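As a warm-up, study this chain.
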Amino acid sequence: MSIVMVGSQFQPNTGPAGYHPADLQSAYKLPSSSAGSGQTVAIVDAFDDPNAEANLGVYRSTFGLSPCTTANGCFKKVDENGGTHYPSPNVNWAEEISLDLDMVSAVCPKCHILLVEATTNSFNNLGTSVNRAATMGANAISNSYGGSEFSSEGSLQTSFYTHPGVAITASSGDNGYGTQVPAAFNTLTAVGGTSLKHAANTRGWKETVWSGAGSGCSAFITKPSWQKDPNCSRRTIADTSAVADPNTGVSVYDTYQQSGWLVFGGTSVSSPVIASVFALAGNASSINTSHLYSHTTGFYDVKSGSNGSCGGSYLCTGVTGYDGPTGLGTPKSTSAF
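Now compare it with the structure written out below.
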């Protein structure tokens, strides 16, 4: 079964339009300048981006971030077996790789970055890459892809997405109300999406549900004990969220069959953002997703907007407290993580 990345919504741009690292750090009150040392964030993608390290260098130098290179030990790129026999390049997945690398850099510039490239976009290859990232010591692993739920999906959760002591995030999807895996798995953190805009308030920002964010009630995965929402007897998606709307998107630099600066949206933005927040907090070895639900004051509650039709239920509508499209809300610094 093949699955697709979920962050391919972009707008070409001749310069670094879109939100910059300083914007994301401001919106979510992140200690990016002081935290993250000693942490490794892994990103799992399919196929190869031959320009990954060079593009990362341009992004980081443009925004005044310290170099993250193979030579200085900050960046490492491997195939799904941990070696350097990289898969065939793919222009769409190269965009995804650039996006993921740039979001980790924006949120946690002191973190090391591990890029694991799966041979294909099958669950088996991508899942094997998740396992590889975990065995190589990643503290957080971001997965910006998804596929439709199916009856035997629980075997994937057990085989590939269960790594106690590692914070695993997965995009909730970009097609509005509805669920997908791996986001539906209860062994990881499902990440929804918001529209993020400047505002004349104390925070300086406001957020609403992004209409494209995935959410809903899993068809097959059991409800974890730490989820208490009333209208879903199984796993509810999402747990938390961050910016994802392409209309309030982020700057990304990509030159593999692209001309440079792009503006990206999708929950492929929010998944690496949240993985990097986990790394900033530095607690992944001792917590899991349940920790978020017992620290709800550490979120900005997203109370308005919708991603589809579900009878006005919290499963597709932003409400006070928990809702499907944005989960518990967006990070208010790192206290919940």
